[in-house]
Amino acid sequence: MAPLFRHTASSATPHHGPYHCTQIECAATDAAQCTYIDRSGDACASAWCASHQVLAHGAAYCRRHANTVLALSPDQEVPSWQLPAVKDRMPSLVYWVAQEISPDVRRSLSGHHLFHDHIDATPVLHVREGDGHFHWEKCWTAHRSHGTPTTVSLSVRDDRPTTLVCRVRNAVVYRSVPPWISADEGGSRVGPDITPDLRSAFHKALVAAILSGTSH
Question: Whole-prediction pTM value?
């Protein structure tokens, strides 16, 4: 299982500041504020110590907003005018789950399509739909010398912002609110000893659905 907090290789030096850490039960008082400022100028009000901040593109973020900026551009800083609203958790959710399952997706596409030329992946993209809604989407596509490409996608739509949808060849193979999110929405307190089990069960079910979809 991947670690809950990740530091990017390009920015490995923690940031410090004069704030109390936002992490529950953390007593640190040298936390740096999350540097995320969205396209409307709204800023994230959280602050994180060296143990709980996530570093991306040379800046300190909370976990959600680090995932957001990495989702949009893994390799370089994203201009603030391109950043989604502070409260928008959708690109972060898609990116985080995609990072967890990407090796399994690639193995699935490789194992069932032995004659593919290559597999490519998109960043997390903002896609406007014909009915006025939009979704955030990550895709992996196996290209073959003969036959049509096979695409696996993860997406979250704006009118169902906590529901993750997985498609194989445009057919829905899995749709679910991740259990750690549904527990939070229901007012339950998910402890750190329970959360890894919830994550593991969710990812196993998602990968099993992808394997089933790509084998047909």
Answer: 0.80
For CA atoms 144, 148, 149, 150, the dihedral sign is negative
> What region, left, alpha or beta, does residue 169 occupy, with left being phi > 0 and alpha being psi -120 to 50 degrees?
left
d(CA 91, CA 59): 19
* Residue in the block written with tokens 């049509």: 148
pLDDT tens-digit profile of 31-77? 999 999 999 999 999 999 999 999 998 899 999 999 999 998 888 88
What does the alpha-carbon distance between residue 154 and residue 151 come to, in Å, rounded to a whole number? 10
- The residue range of the domain holding 37 is 1-84
Quick one: 131 and 170 in the same domain?
yes
Q: Are residues 57 and 94 in the same domain?
A: no
Do residues 128 and 99 touch, judged by C-beta distance below 8 A? Answer: no
Contact 8, 56 (CB under 8 A): yes
| pLDDT tens digits for range 123-177 | 899 999 888 899 999 999 988 777 788 899 999 999 999 999 999 999 999 999 9
Within 10 angstroms of residue 210's Cβ, the number of other Cβ atoms is 23
